[in-house]
Write a structure and sequence with these properties.
The complex is a heterodimer of chains A (about 280) and B (about 400). Chain A has about 280 residues and is mainly beta. In chain A, about 10% of the residues lie in helices and about 40% in strands. Chain A has helices at about 5-10, 25-30, 40-55, 270-275, and strands at about 60-70, 75-85, 95-100, 110, 120-125, 130-135, 160-170, 175-185, 190-200, 205-210, 215-230, 230-240, 250-260. In chain A, strand 3 (about 95-100) and strand 4 form a beta hairpin. Chain B has about 400 residues and is mainly β. The two termini of chain B are about 25 Å apart. Classes of the chains: A mainly beta (about 280), B mainly beta (about 400). The interface of A and B includes residues 70, 118 and 270 of A.
Chain lengths: ~280, ~400
Amino acid sequence: MKCSTNCYQSTVSSTLAIGLSFAVLLMLVTAFPSTAATPEQQGLAISKEAKLRDLGWQDSTAKMLMKLRNKQGQTSIREIKIKSLEVTNDGDKGLTIFNKPRDVKGTAFLSFSHAIGADDQWLYLPALKRVKRISSRNKSGPFMGSEFSFEDLSSFEIPKYTYKYLGDEKTNGLDSFMIEQYPVDKNSGYTRRVVWIDKTEYRTQKIDFYDRKNSLLKTLTYADYQQFLDKYWRPMTMSMVNHQNGKSTELVWTNYKFRVGLSDKDFNKNSLKRAH
Amino acid sequence: MKNHLTYALLMLTMPILLTPFLSTPSIANEFEVSGKIGLEARYFFQQAQFSEQNGQSNLSVFVEPELYWNWNNEDDSLIFKPYLRDDQHDSQRSHGDIRELTWTHVGNDWELRTGINKVYWGVTEFQHLVDVINQTDSVEDIDGEDKLGQQMINLSLVRDWGIVDILVMPGFRERTFAGQKGRLRSGLVVNTSKAEYQASAGQQHVDYALRWTTSIGDFDIGTSYFNGTNRDPLFNVASVFSAQSQQATGLELTPYYVLMEQVSVDIQATLGDWLWKVEGLYRDTNSQNYWASQVGFEYTRVGVFDSAIDIGYLVEYGWDSRGENIAVINQNDVFFGSRIAFNDVQSSEILWGAGVDLDHNAQSIIVEASRRLGDSYKLSLDVRFFNSKNVQDILTQLDQDDHIQLTLERYF
């Protein structure tokens, strides 16, 4: 999943895509780090390049295990299936299907994300067999009681942030760029995010999240990257630690499959209702 | 009760016993068993209003397994979801139903669902006005959200301009009603074994419906047409005769189901934190034609007081052109309430709502709270208050049925 950018978009697109990652394409920038460009231009250029590099994955499916841990070490599990469809020139489409906890089994979430403007989201409630259009305004709220918010899981799109290149630093043992991102949307729960992207493969290695009061809130660390189709990198593990409440959430990805033949017909209200 | 439990156990174990046969790749690519089993306790704050009704407390158990198969790369699937409830006092509330038994085949731009299924139409929360496909299983709860499975063939066409559903429904399901000993019923008991129909084919009449839904920007729009037996019965008062003496010993209600044609719309506008909702229908039957609507909004404040808590405020208004006439519940009624979502690990939630009848002096209040316990249990608390002293209002019959209900469910 590391793919940062793409991954997410791809994966769950908006939905839950865990898209936090970002990153990747910084390479070019590296090559000419300090030419005449301002830090803002460098940050943007790196991010754009990262986005470009992850284009073309088309569609994917994956399983996500979410392990929630509280301060006392008690754990709780969520098991989720994610289908994603790459949409050119807009945000991606995503279908998220819950399997555990069992009381929400069959609940499904359909999302059409947009680069600019609010996403379109529908929720399917299996007990009533009801499809409900929901407000996508609640980006900062926790996803299923975890330390990930909805915006942490939505696809990365260039227009969602403004950028600043902060410098270089070693992270997870890899030489990385540090980029600061400022959310454009006033409904974001963050004032800024600091993202580390490794210089060799341009994968997001770490993100620090700063809350609305600009205090360090959470750190997300990416691990176990795997490459798919000889091009697209995805982290198999993502660990979010909340520094303010002592809780953490770990995401473990399995069964990643690309180009399985998904199309628009797999992302409408009918497919939402038969999700399993 | 024992028989029912044996049946429930059988239903639960059968899929497990069958698994080795069903999981052969050539038969099914995927087979899953899930479901829930629950225990419900009700306590009524007052003595019963009608003499035959049971006392102030009631226990009930229920089970709803779900068996699911898919094959053909998920293009074909079969779902079987039976339901069984065993009630301590009310023999009518002890009942079983096949909620779903449907084979679904998915084509490129169409989908065919054949069997017993459930279909939901509508957008509002306090009344489900345009939701007319499935019969209400009213012994389950009085909120009208529990439905009986409906036999149907449903062809769904997916087009750029929306989804068109064509439904053909061979066979009608009668509404369930509380029995003599049950609480939450009308003064006269409804005798469902004496139901009558306007259609000459009775329960075998074939109903059909058409629906078109689409999303245009922030608007989700549904338009529907229904032609068939009205799910809402009229009632006749009949004498009850003693089996031995053939003497009339009392009165009862018998349901009478008429034919109807209905057109309806349901629209939701999703504008930032605001959801605006409209449902409206025109219903034409032999005895009467009328208009009805339910309109309102839901406004949500997210992350209140710097916490993860969301609070939603709901207001709706129900209107019916029949006015104070007969048994119309929501002829001129205002509803308001709020939903509090704690967004915690246990998914704790509280919803409360109040309904005020502007024509009669009648009010009702509901509170629904739930929370997950561990990974597979859920605890729910429901409280309902009714106040109506006006005999013109149908709610009067529930005036002494204020109650609190605790439900523990185990999911598997």
